[in-house]
């Protein structure tokens, strides 16, 4: 992996996600560890619209380190479970964009997770920008839902740099059962 790719990124003098994560600008951070953070976006395009981002500045999905990619997937799942429990919607939208032509607006890889709207899907185009107090209220409600879960929290990120042999074995067995049931 050379770090070189063909993606044309949006330009900005500074990264807003890095500023939020470093506490330079106010923003609602729902949860965070050393690799990944879940933010409550001020542009709510669905119900409990969250952003899952790597803590390290990383422009696109192609630039992620393996441990970041794994931690992101676990937190995306956690965010989806949280939205599902809080919003009780018939659908959850998860999306991610890389490059200007894919409508990436911030050159820091991020995944959107949101409960679907009453009419289905999520809102595109202009949406009202909520205050930090309003996104803090959304985070408070989500934290109450999360606190009601039995521990350990479903989808809780576990920092593993090398896959545990038992996990590899379980994955291989599960894969074999579902894809090669007669063997």
Structure notes:
- The protein is built from four helices and five strands; from the N terminus they run H-E-E-E-H-E-E-H-H.
- It is an alpha+beta fold.
- The protein has a single domain, classed as HIT family, subunit A (2-Layer Sandwich).
- The protein is globular and about 45 Å long.
- The termini are far apart.
Strand content: 5-15%
Order of helices and strands: HEEEHEEHH
Mean pLDDT: 84
CATH class: Alpha Beta
- Proportion of residues in helical segments: 25-40%
Q: Globular, elongated, flat, extended or rod-shaped: what is the shape?
A: globular
Secondary structure class reads alpha+beta
The CATH superfamily is identified as HIT-like
- Count the helices. How many? 4
Q: Unreliable runs, pLDDT <50, ≥5 residues?
A: 158-183
The CATH topology comes to: HIT family, subunit A
The tally of beta strands, per DSSP, is 5
- Main beta sheet, described? 5 strands, antiparallel
Q: End-to-end distance, in Å? A: 36 Å
Instruction: Write down the Rg.
Output: 18 Å
Please specify the SSE layout and strand pairing.
Layout lengths: L15 H6 L6 E5 L3 E5 L6 E8 L11 H22 L4 E4 L15 E5 L16 H16 L17 H15 L4
Antiparallel strand pairs: 1-2, 2-3, 3-5, 4-5
Helix pairs in contact: 2-3
Question: Which characteristics define this entry?
Answer:
single chain; 183 residues; alpha+beta; HIT family, subunit A; 5-stranded antiparallel beta sheet; disordered C terminus
Short synopsis of the structure:
By secondary structure, this protein is α+β, with helices and mostly antiparallel strands.
């Amino acid at each position: 992996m050379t770090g070189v790719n063909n993606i044309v990124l949006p330009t900005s003098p500074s990264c807003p996600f890095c500023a939020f994560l470093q506490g330079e600008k106010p923003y609602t951070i729902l949860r965070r560890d050393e690799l990944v953070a879940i933010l409550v976006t001020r542009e709510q395009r669905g119900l409990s619209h969250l952003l899952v981002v790597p803590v390290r500045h990383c422009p696109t999905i192609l630039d992620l380190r393996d441990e970041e990619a794994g931690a992101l997937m676990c937190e995306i799942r956690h965010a989806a479970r949280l939205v599902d429990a809080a919003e009780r919607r018939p659908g959850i939208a998860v999306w991610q964009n890389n490059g200007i032509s894919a409508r990436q607006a911030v050159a820091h890889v991020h995944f959107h997770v949101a409960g679907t709207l009453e009419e289905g899907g999520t809102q595109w185009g202009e949406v009202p920008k909520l205050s930090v107090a309003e996104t803090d209220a959304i985070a408070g409600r989500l934290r109450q839902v999360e606190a009601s879960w039995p521990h350990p929290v479903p989808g809780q990120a576990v920092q593993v740099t090398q896959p545990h042999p038992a996990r590899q074995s379980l994955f291989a067995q599960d894969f074999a059962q579902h894809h090669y049931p007669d063997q």
